[in-house]
Design goal:
Elements lengths: L1 H41 L6 H25 L3 H15 L4
């Protein structure tokens, strides 16, 4: 009985940590999206080298994170659904 309870607690902890990781990953990507939108909306000239450099840095960071996500969640439909839901909720709150 103790083994079953212990196993259940461990399983719940693993699932909970996994969900938190998915949410954190989605929030990281959404933060980059919001940052990009803010730069674009505040830029007076989208051809300005400073603006282009900032956007390029964001794109590079997003590509890096995207590669991590592909390896983490490629075969995990539930995690990807949670990621998409969290991402959508977060980008709607962009400031």
């Amino acid at each position: 009985m103790k083994k079953i309870v212990l196993f259940s607690i461990i399983l719940i902890s693993v699932v909970s940590c996994s969900n938190n990781n998915v949410k954190k990953d989605a929030e990281r990507m959404a933060e980059l999206f919001c940052k990009q939108n803010k730069i674009v909306s505040q830029a007076q000239d989208l051809h300005d080298s400073t603006v282009l450099k900032q956007l390029q840095q964001i794109e590079e960071e997003a590509n890096k994170i995207n590669k991590e996500l592909e390896s983490k969640y490629a075969n995990d439909t539930k995690s990807m659904e949670l990621f998409a839901k969290t991402y959508q909720e977060r980008i709607l709150k962009c400031k």
